[in-house]
Amino acid sequence: MLTPLLSRLTALAACVLATLSMPAVAVADEGPKGSGNTTCDLYTCRVEVDVPGRAGGQRSGGSGAGVGSGSAGDEANGGKSTDLTNCTYKLIHPQPPAGSLDWEGHGPGDGAVYEETCKWNDSGNSIVRMVWLPESPEEEVVDPAVLAQQAVDKMTLLAPDIASPHSAGRYTVGVPMWMWVNRSATTYGPNTASASAGGVTVTAIAKVSKIEWRMGDGSTVTCTGPGTPYTGSTGMAGSPTCGHVYSTTSAGAPGGTYAVTATSTWTIDWQGGGAAGQLTEIRQSDVQVAVGEVQVVR
């Protein structure tokens, strides 16, 4: 009686051992399926699933809808299965609450949780899962024009540094006034700066293209250069590049002076990232000018 019973027990044991030795998933024939532990919190459940292509048959935790979602931390493949391709990501809104398993031990504000959809092998099937990522996976779209403005902001472009006329000077009706400005990289140019982002670099070059002088007596003088400094040897001659002659005194103006403004137009040419363009910046300086007249006593 014992011999047939032992034979049956031996056969049963062999059957059990054969069953336990079989792989959980036949990768060549099946897609990933639930085959492990399930752990849940108040909001989500994490189900261990076998994901083809993971080294050593590693399992990925999953939560939410779809086949599952899980850790992006596959040690062998940087968190990505070699069989998962053409992945797209959608930011989950609203984000899971603090403590959710989807944060994978992180907290709100530390990266974000995304819905990852990947093509599995070349079968046409997709795997959808929730993943935590430290940065947005979307490729940054860089606008060269935005970088150009950032380059301009680095330049600290200033208003004209007026050398003449100056508030301490006294000027005379009928006598030519010479106007000019001091030149530097920040007040006249040229001024060059670059800005970079996402592998794109834009370089901008700025230079004052014109200065418009409002003389306070209703006159406007536009000069395309910095002006020519006056020297005593020129006598009563007018400026060859930027000048004005007052026909009335400033005695009737507020404070007895003319309010003179010099407005510079900065022209900025930029190029980079397969694009090019031009920007304009405006800066203004003011000065008070006293203009008198020469009276002849007979």
> How much strand content do the residues show?
35-45%
Q: How many domains make up the coordinates?
A: 2
Largest pleated sheet: 6 strands, mixed
| Annotated CATH homologous superfamily of the largest domain | Immunoglobulins
Assign an overall shape: elongated
Question: What's the helix and strand layout?
Answer:
Blueprint: H1 2-21, E1 34-40, E2 45-50, E3 59-60, E4 84-91, E5 112-120, E6 126-133, H2 144-155, E7 161-164, E8 170-172, E9 177-178, E10 180-182, E11 191-197, E12 200-214, E13 220-223, E14 243-244, E15 258-272, E16 275-292
Parallel strand pairs: 8-16
Antiparallel strand pairs: 1-2, 2-3, 4-5, 5-6, 7-10, 9-14, 11-12, 12-13, 12-15, 15-16
List keywords for this structure.
six-stranded mixed sheet; 16 strands; 2 domains; 298 residues; three-stranded antiparallel sheet; Immunoglobulin-like; mainly beta
Structure description:
With 298 residues, the chain is mainly beta. It folds into two domains: 26-133, no CATH class; 144-292, Immunoglobulins (Immunoglobulin-like). The chain contains two helices and 16 strands. It has helices spanning 2-21, 144-155; strands at 34-40, 45-50, 59-60, 84-91, 112-120, 126-133, 161-164, 170-172, 177-178, 180-182, 191-197, 200-214, 220-223, 243-244, 258-272, 275-292. The strands form five sheets. Strands 8, 11, 12, 13, 15 and 16 form a six-stranded mixed sheet that branches. The radius of gyration is 39 Å and the shape is elongated. 28% of the residues are buried.
